[in-house]
Amino acid sequence: MVPTKTTPKSSKTVDSMPPHTPNQTNEPSSLPTRRRSLRLASIPNSDPPQCDAGDDSAATATAVRVSNDPNSGPTGGAFSGKGRRKGRSDDSPTVTVKLDDSVKGFLNLRSGKKVLKRGMEASQDNAVTNGDPGSGSAKRGRKTRTQKSQEEEEEEEEEQICEADVDAVKIEKQNIAEGLEHFDSGNRGKRKLDGHAVNVEVGSTVAGARKLSREEKGKSVAHEAPLENGSGAKLHSEERNAVPVQVRARERSRNTNNNNNNGNQREHGSNRMERFRDIARENALRFAHFTAEEEENTNDNSVSEPEVEHEIEDWPGPFSTAMKIIRDREKKDFQTGCRPSERSLVESIKWVPKGNQALTSGKLLVPSSLQELCLKILARNVDNIASLDSVPDSLRHRLSQLLCDSGRITDHFLELLVGGSPTEIRLRNCSWLSEEQFTKCFQMCDTANLMVLQLDQCGRCLADYVIHTTLAQSRGHLPRLTSLSITGACRLSDIGLRALVSSAPALRSVNLSRCSLLTSSGIFHLAESLKPLLKELYLDECNGIDTELVLPALLELEHLEVLSVASVKTVNDDFVKNYVTARGHNLKELILHNCVNVTDASIKIIAEHCPGLCVLDLMHLEKLTDVSIGHLTNRCHALHTLKLCRNPFSDEVIAAFVETSGESLQELSLNSVKKVGYHTTLSLANHAKNLHTLDLSWCRNLTDNALGLIVDRCLSLISLNLFGCTQVTDVFLKGHSNMRLQIIGLQNSPLLQHVKVPDPHQGALNYSSVSMDCV
Amino acid sequence: MKKEDTVKLISAEGFEFVIDKEAAMVSQTIHNMLTSPGSFAERQHGEVTFPEISTTILEKICQYFYWHLQFASGKETEFPIEPELTLELMMAANYLHT
């Protein structure tokens, strides 16, 4: 038996533990690194080593917690549980909890991550700190003594199983992927994540022995996983996106796993595999996870969809006209009686790539503009810039953006920006900025003329007390401030917001995205003070705000033109209905990105009440059906930007929309709208003359011909996103005739090009001009 | 160089730079001045004055025009810029849309 290391560490109280920043666990071990084979030889094939049951409370805490696990199967199944094999037994007579760690509150996973024990998790949410990822493989040398014993214990268990599997390993190596497929049928939703992770891990090339061990682990986990939560081979190593939920699942699996470990150590070879497969089949149903795609395919939906669709097509209006055109077109082009398949439709598109492909060198020589050259040099020599006086705002913004993106921004540059009496200060990324520096700069800053202040990702430097000493030094300290953006201000509470608002009485545009501490009372105050003025409000991901409670506040904002509630979970049809019926007539931009509870009913209301709507973002709204596009086609004639992503719309419906609204369309995103194909292509080619930005990522039905046709006929097209379009070949890439076009997302496009960058010349508001008279 | 193919750019201090029209057209501003249907005085005399741009900067800009033409026709070289000039040069380039 391996001697247990029991150096008790002082227990930390849970409350005093601050949130952790990632740290490296590079502590050397006092034990020499031992080879796996040596250890194998020294360990008997029996129960896992006992450990001291010293700290009863901790042990019982974990034991109690652990015993709940087997009952929480279905919910457990919904998590992509990491399936950490090393379980803590809950009903084995020996408590195999490593108590020093439990006392300390941490478990050191093999990957080096520290994970709070489950008993502790109840009172602390963020549990995972990322240790050194490189220690994922069995580098024992990196662990401390106390941790080591726990790891050893775990490894021993693994090895015992590995030992059994060594014979079968070679055959089963290839079967890992297939083995996982077994669980696929039962665990579709999770599979997407898990399968991917497994591929990463199985494919990782580590030194031979390690690879073997990893695959063994992978395999073994795959077998045991369905027994608790069908997690597959989600290894603990190399996973960076751990979440408390997953941690719990991991713990749970660890606990229940150990049961199986004890029993399994004695079985060998393929018998075990069979048994596992049987158990998996039995349990799979419990853990099956429905995705939206599956729901779509059920019979109910398919019956109701065509009915509703026919309804909207029947009503007279632009949509029905367009749909008729499309159906006629299809009939005209294809004389055969049966409906042609999608493939043959798309392949019928005729497009001639330009003939002189051989002549073009493939790269158009475009010299950089002088401004760009200068900006680059300035970015490299930031600290030598003496002053930005007389530099126009647009150039300041471009320089600031370049510096933020390339990580070259310094305190000195901020001082330059706040020097003089600036009118606009834009910083896309303030994560480098410390509180002290922020306070220093903004205490001194002359804000009399400041109209635009953008401090994005300012969580580090912007807290309530900082605001009181800088931006809200006095009432009306920011007299001309029109546009304020403080995204990511995660330490800003309602009080800080209140102070800001009282010091900026002229605010017209406020971006509070990801300010997670804000609640509806902060918004109420905002609405009260800025009632007639506020034109733009962004509340992306502000999940501290309950949309039901905040609705009256929003209704008070009489002139709101832009509203974004992206990713706010509580947004539902009622909210949209109530807001839009009252205030829709002024609305120009509505962003419902990722508000998954929104359905067709909301879109119908939006279409009816927002005649002036210019920008609509419906990305990730998977409950919408074709009916929504029908409504939009019929009523929203001013729409120039429509953003769709992963919506289950059909090709014909999108085509109908483009037929009707194509002339005014400037930006269209059809990212992952998988059914897009023949009809949309033709409609775009015929009508989208003003389209400058198009996103066709993941639309795999589009062939080279289709894309070529679109690109050559949409004369204004400048930017085309084609992420995930592996079907595109050089026939299109080299054969299209659009000289100005930039294609993003295929092999040679520079990174980050698709990230939308604000226009440096853009004024403070999107849709209105600001006049200072009414202040 | 024939007179019809050239354009005169005059700096703040009064220095005159005579360059090809093709080179000057690299600047969108100058291009508009010289080709727009209205009657800019510049168009008639073939001269453009820049009271805000100093001589050194204007000289550098002219060099940039020629570099631009060479690059577009295949000769890929680097355009050297002294760091001290950069800020002013950038502002002038911004004004000239180049």
From TrEMBL, chain A:
Comp. bias (Acidic residues): 151-160
InterPro entries noted in UniProt: FBXL15_LRR (IPR057207), Leu-rich_rpt_Cys-con_subtyp (IPR006553), LRR_dom_sf (IPR032675)
Domain F-box/LRR-repeat protein 15-like leucin rich repeat: 597-734
Residue numbers spanned by region Disordered: 1-101, 119-160, 209-272
Residue ranges the record marks as coiled coil: none
Protein name, UniProt field: F-box/LRR-repeat protein 15-like leucin rich repeat domain-containing protein
UniProt feature, compositional bias: Basic and acidic residues: 212-226
UniProt source species: Stylosanthes scabra
Pfam families: DUF7885 (PF25372)
Low complexity compositional bias, start-end: 1-13, 255-264
Annotated TM spans: none
From TrEMBL, chain B:
Keyword Zinc-finger carried by entry: no
Compartments where located: Nucleus
Domain spans labelled SKP1 component POZ: 6-69
Name of the protein in question: Elongin-C
Keywords for this protein: Nucleus
Gene3D superfamilies: Potassium Channel Kv1.1, Chain A
This protein's record includes keyword Repeat: no
InterPro entries: ELC1 (IPR039948), SKP1-like (IPR001232), SKP1/BTB/POZ_sf (IPR011333), Skp1_comp_POZ (IPR016073)
PANTHER family: ELONGIN-C (PTHR20648)
Short name of one Pfam family: Skp1_POZ
Superkingdom, taxonomy of origin: Eukaryota
Pathway annotation from the record: Protein modification; protein ubiquitination
Family: Belongs to the SKP1 family.
Source organism of this protein record: Stylosanthes scabra
